[in-house]
Amino acid sequence: MPPPPRLHQLLVFFLVLLLLPLLSAIHMAPAASAGEGGVEEALLGLLQRVQSVALRALGARDFDPKLYVDLPLAADASAAAAAAALASLPRPAPSRGEMEAYISRYFAPAGSDLVAADPPDFEREPRGFLPKVESAAARAWALEVHALWKDLTRRVAPAVAVRPERHTLLSLPGRVVVPGSRFREVYYWDSYWVVRGLLVSKMYETAKDVTLNLVYLVEKYGFVPNGARSYYTNRSQPPLLSSMILDIYMATGDMVFVRRAFPSLLKEHSFWMSEVHNVAIMDNHGHVHNMSRYQAMWNKPRPESATIDEELASKLTSTAAKEQFYHQVASTAESGWDFSSRWMRDSTDMTTLTTSYIIPVDLNTFILKMEQDIAFFAKLIGESPISERFSEASKARYDAIESVLWNSDMDQWLDYWLPTDGNCQGIYLWKPNSQNRAIFASNFVPLWLNAQHSGLSCRRPLPVFVPMPGCIALFWEYLKLYGNIYQHIFHDLGVLF
Ligand SMILES: *[C@@H]1O[C@H](CO)[C@@H](O)[C@H](O)[C@H]1NC(C)=O
Ligand SMILES: *[C@@H]1O[C@H](CO)[C@@H](O)[C@H](O)[C@H]1NC(C)=O
């Protein structure tokens, strides 16, 4: 057992774990190109047909279904002409050459509807950059990572706002930072780490742009979609918008920015409190708690992965079973943990995904934090009654998390599994054996919330989860499973944040 780490180190390590998928996405080879677009069902439907013909023409090897739904129409092409030409391609499948000729005739490259945008607040080595990092190697590496902002910052081409029906890409008002590779567009929860990184890089204006794009999406859709594509508008992602706004406010003190974003936070909160996401559960003492779950508004294959989803569903026989599976797949994508045995009744079988019947530790903690953040901002801008209301809501959710999800034998919070034979209406009765005793990083997310408090506790006298010593030790053991390489990264990154 290594010396017990300090709490904030654990939390940074946890953040790093969450960051890894993003880092690995950044380090993947750059994608061929890009095309994104629109809003119109018609274009998306056409692109899905192109996708399935392409699968027949090119074969399943190295096939990326997302590429096809990202294609914008070529400047001189119409959707009707592209549809007609698709219908006249040779059957049962065109050759590779015929397929490629068709695509380049009627479509522009995927990603070409995003244009380069030099972030004006980028400096090669910003003043006061990572003052605590002394190792020359670590500094050089951090500056390389920092320089990636220049590659990943774009703007949505003006043509997208003018003719949205020619793109699956959604138009956004400000500069965007994309994860990179095949992820050519903005993503919701990835943006949280993008913002954290931009703040480390002192790129405050870009961080505000990234966040205000999400605010714009809430104004338009009532929630932040999974990503800025028409095919992502039927599900959200882990709700970290309030965290982005808080972190930017703590770094800049910009009240105009807070006032601008505030109404969207209220709107997003209503989305997560709405019937789709709400679950009522009665604890052992007869208290009823309202909690939240992931649930996408979708029961078809995900357009960006349709060929994969259909293949997985092929062993299910009834239409109802397929729809239920597609619904769970999309709901799992909403969780940001796509995919993990965490959501499966049988960890070896993807078709047993049951995400919408699970009360997740992380989601409820994120919403608790959202409620605390809203209470804080409301007070800041002089909206005391709203502040009171959200302060009460956060206390209620804190109690709910402690009663429904805490497990004192295991010294951690556990996901709660609802019976799948109901439709999640009415009030569930809490049963001790319905907690999922498997250990996931998400079981420790409430500890992250405490770290968020430490800098704020003087301003926000709100409840804090008390981490049991056993819980911290367990968390450390869990992290050790990830091996030495992460400890090495941790060592250098531990001082960054
Ligand atoms: C999908 O989302 C769009 C935009 O938010 C909405 O208009 C549509 O009704 C949704 N579809 C379903 C099946 O809920
Ligand atoms: C739970 O939500 C329902 C529906 O929104 C509401 O009527 C009820 O008062 C809430 N219960 C608690 C304990 O907050």
From TrEMBL:
InterPro entries the record matches: 6-hairpin_glycosidase_sf, 6hp_glycosidase-like_sf, Glyco_hydro_37
Similarity comment: family membership: Belongs to the glycosyl hydrolase 37 family.
Catalytic activity: alpha,alpha-trehalose + H2O = alpha-D-glucose + beta-D-glucose
Organism of derivation: Oryza meyeriana var. granulata
Top-level taxon in the UniProt lineage: Eukaryota
Protein name as annotated: Trehalase
EC code: 3.2.1.28
Pfam families in the cross-refs: Trehalase
Gene3D superfamilies assigned to the protein according to its UniProt record, in alphabetical order: 1.50.10.10
Lineage: Eukaryota, Viridiplantae, Streptophyta, Embryophyta, Tracheophyta
One GO BP annotation of this record: trehalose catabolic process
Signal peptide positions on this chain: 1-25
UniProt xrefs under PANTHER family: TREHALASE (PTHR23403:SF1)
The entry's keywords: Glycosidase, Hydrolase, Signal
Gene Ontology MF annotations: alpha,alpha-trehalase activity
